[in-house]
Structure formats: C-alpha cells, structure tokens
Amino acid sequence: MRVLGTLTAGLLLASAGLPAASAEPISHGTLTVVPVGLENSRGSLLVQLSNAAAAFEGNGEAYRSAEVKVVDGQAVVVFENVPFGDYALKVFHDENDNQKLDTNFVGMPKEKFGFSNDAMGRFGPPKFEQARFRLEESATTLRIEMK
Fold first, then answer.
1. Residue 125 in contact with residue 50, Cβ under 8 Å?
2. Class (C level, CATH) for 28-145
3. How far apart are CA 79 and CA 95, in angstroms?
C-alpha cells in the first residue's frame, strides 16, 4: 500500500504543470542572417530565403524575404518559425533603395552581394545546390561574406 501511495504522489507531482514526456519534437527554427563586409550605412539590406531551386534561380518567389535598413555599416535579419529543411540565401546591399542590384555596363554588380555558403557562380549567380544549407537546429546564425 505504501508503494502505491508513493507512486500516486509521484504521478500527481509529475503532472502538476510539467511538460509531458511525449512532447512533439522541435521542427522549426530561427535563422539569423549577418552580412559581413558592408562598407557604408546607405540604403537597405535585402535578403531572400528560398527553399527550391526555381525560386533561388529566379523562376519563382522566395519562401521568405526581408528588407532592413543598414545602420552604422551593419544589419541583421531574423527569420522566425522556419520549418527544418534545405534553403539557400541571396543577400544584397541596396545602397540607393531602388529594389534591384545595380550593375555596370558589362553586368558586374556595383553593390555588395552574397550567398549562403559564400557560393559564387562562374558567370553569374550560383545555383541552388551551391548555396544550399540545411536548417535543422532551433537557432542558426549564418554569416554572409559580402563581395
């Protein structure tokens, strides 16, 4: 009888506001994007988070996007509640806030840009597979080298 009373008391304490042992596993995370190498505080930082090659390579919409002002040569973008999976990032410093990456007469970018994995394409932007990373932790920070 004493064992039963101890067991009952233990069960009551265990159920008194404590999380259940069978709680669902975490399946979403927070992704923080930190550009490295911004040279000034003009304009905004534009970031696109894609979960498919078509969207990353320009044939569809990004999964999520963000725009933040650059202050003191720095900017940080946080994407919350992102499902675990494969993604790729495009980042550029839109110094004149015209919502596009400005290029010179031969098509070379005049504004700083970067990609996840610091990926680079041969004659243009990298492919999704080059920039792909896996989000699988509750909090991840990616530093993007701006070129």
1. no
2. mainly beta
3. 22
Q: From CA 63, how far away is CA 51, in angstroms rounded?
A: 6
Residue 135: both structure tokens together: 């989000």
- Cα–Cα distances in Å, from 100 out to 8, 13, 41, 111? 66, 59, 17, 10
* pLDDT at position 5 over 60: no
Contacts of 10 (CB under 8 A, 6+ apart): none
Read off the pLDDT of residues 66-93 as tens digits, 9 standing for 90 and up.
999 999 999 999 999 999 999 999 999 9
Read off the pLDDT of residues 106-118 as tens digits, 9 standing for 90 and up: 989 999 999 999 9
Supply 1's token pair: 């009888």
User: Which pLDDT value is given to residue 23?
Assistant: 66
Under 8 Å between Cβ of 73 and 41? yes
Residues 65, 87 contacting (CB under 8 angstroms): no
Q: What is the pTM of this model?
A: 0.81
What are the residue boundaries of the structural domains of the chain, listed by start?
28-145
Instruction: Provide the token pair at 99.
Output: 């919502």
Alpha-carbon span 56 to 50, nearest angstrom: 5
